[in-house]
Design brief:
The protein is about 25% helix and about 15% strand. A hairpin with a 4-residue loop joins β2 and β3. The radius of gyration is 22 Å and the shape is elongated. The N and C termini lie far apart (about 65 Å).
Length: about 140
């Protein structure tokens, strides 16, 4: 039996993680579109346990499981985009690369499409911005 997880971070649909053998569905989609949307997504993801692709044999199984729609409904409430947490720079071309997740070891694809130690990206330290304290009488 796969684990079933309801995500408060995901805004629509769901996915199956084979390595963890778990199905993740969206709480926001459930709140906005109801139980039928959630069940449709769940059935879709159950079909992915057998077929990781979206070819004809996947859809035959999905429809046999009760899938009624091919695509998840789009979110009614859009989340604002969060700013990237990590900023990197290329030591050669000075190109800036922004990421939400930290990179382990990557090189600049503009300078060389394959990994090259000459173009290893450098993390730009985040500047600490301390709020100025308000002393009484100022």
């Amino acid at each position: 039996m796969p684990a079933i997880v309801v995500s408060t971070r995901k805004t629509y649909g769901g996915y199956y993680q084979p390595r963890l053998h778990r199905i993740v569905v969206s709480w926001q989609a459930h709140r906005e579109h109801g139980i039928e949307e959630t069940l449709n997504t769940f059935r879709h993801e159950v079909a992915h346990i057998v077929h990781p692709h979206h070819r004809a044999d996947f859809w035959a199984l999905a429809y046999a499981l009760g899938v009624t729609r091919r695509y998840a409904s789009t979110p009614l409430v859009k989340r604002p985009a969060r700013p990237p947490k990590y900023h990197y720079t290329c030591p050669v071309c000075s190109k800036q690369i922004l990421r939400h997740r930290r990179l382990k070891l990557s090189s600049c694809a503009s300078c060389d499409p394959r990994f090259n130690l000459k173009f290893v990206l450098r993390l730009i330290p985040r500047e600490t911005t301390e709020p100025e304290s308000c002393a009484p009488g100022k």
